[in-house]
Each structure stands twice: as C-alpha cells, then as structure tokens.
Amino acid sequence: MKRVLRIVPLMLLAGCHMGGQDDLHQFVQDAGAHMRGRVEPLPEVKPYQPFVYNDFDQSDPFKPRKLKFNSAEGGIQPDLNRPKELLESFALETLKMVGVIQRNGVNYAVIKTPLNTIYVVKVGNYLGQNFGKIVAITDKEVKLKEIVQDGAGDWSERDSSLNLQEQ
Question: What is the full DSSP assignment across 41-74?
Fold first, then answer.
C-alpha cells in the first residue's frame, strides 16, 4: 500500500508533462522572430580644448567691471581714505536703535549690534556698509545719507533710516 501511495504522485507529475504544450513552445519561438531592436549610435564627442587666458593687460572676466572715475569731473564719491568706524562692519539691517540719550541739548542714539553690544553714536558718525553718515537723530529714528555704487561704477546718494525698536 505504501508503495502505491509513492507511485501516484509521480504518475500525476508525468501526466502533466506529456504533450499539450507544443503550441506554447511554438508561440514563444514565433513571437520574437519578426522583432528586431535598433539602437541609435551615440553622438560623436568633441574633444575638450582648454582656453588659456593670456591677456593680462585686459580686464579680468571674473570681476565686475567699473568705469574709471575722473575726479576732475566731480560727482559724489565716498572718502575711501578715512578710517572706518566700528559700526561700519555691520549691515544696516542688522543694527537696531534701542534708545536716545540727550546731553547738553545734543541727541545721541543707542545702537545694538547683532553681537548684543551697545554703542552710542551722534550726528557725523557712520553706520552700515554703504558709507552711511548720520545726518539727524530724533526721538524715533536715526537718519542717514548712504553712498552706494551702481553696476556701471557711478556713486549715488540715498536716504536711509534706522527706526527705534520698541519692546
């Protein structure tokens, strides 16, 4: 009996394998017969030719171009020879006016830097990175005249202010 039980599964497997799959094999062979793949050839790669910049008497292509300023023509120009003040190392947007002090009828502004350092300034001092000279100090703001340079190298004056930060 045990021998019969062992032979039955083998007979079933043999029966599945016999015939009936010839059409499947024929279909697989015929399906790929008329297909042909075509790959476009790669484009030709041009060899790299480095450019050597030997024109040192010409302007540097990586620096912004500025027109030469003729001082005989006049115009607005900052004093580049004066020593910079400490608050000129900070951008004007990062400085805060936190108070006003009045001594002998003269207003002094209390300025706080991003480093949480406090400085006292008066009319004539400089603030910000655009040559901003303090022209007036009121109870609510510090008024400045900044000298900025445009892309063509021309200097122009603009008014700015630093408002009192109320907390």
Answer: PPPPPPPP-------TTSPPTTS---PPP-GGG-
Q: How far apart are CA 5 and CA 10, in angstroms?
A: 9
CA pair distance 104, 143, nearest whole angstrom: 20
Number of structural domains found in the chain: 2
Mean pLDDT by 10 residues, the chain (167 residues): 63 61 83 79 90 72 58 70 92 93 92 94 93 93 91 85 84
Q: Which two tokens stand for residue 3?
A: 């021998």
**Domain extent at residue 6:** 2-31
**69, 77 Cβ separation under 8 angstroms:** yes
Q: Alpha-carbon Rg of the chain, whole angstroms?
A: 42
The answer to whether position 67 is within a domain reads no
Torsion of CA 21, 25, 27, 29, to 10 degrees: -170
Contact call for residues 150 and 156 (beta carbons, < 8 A): yes
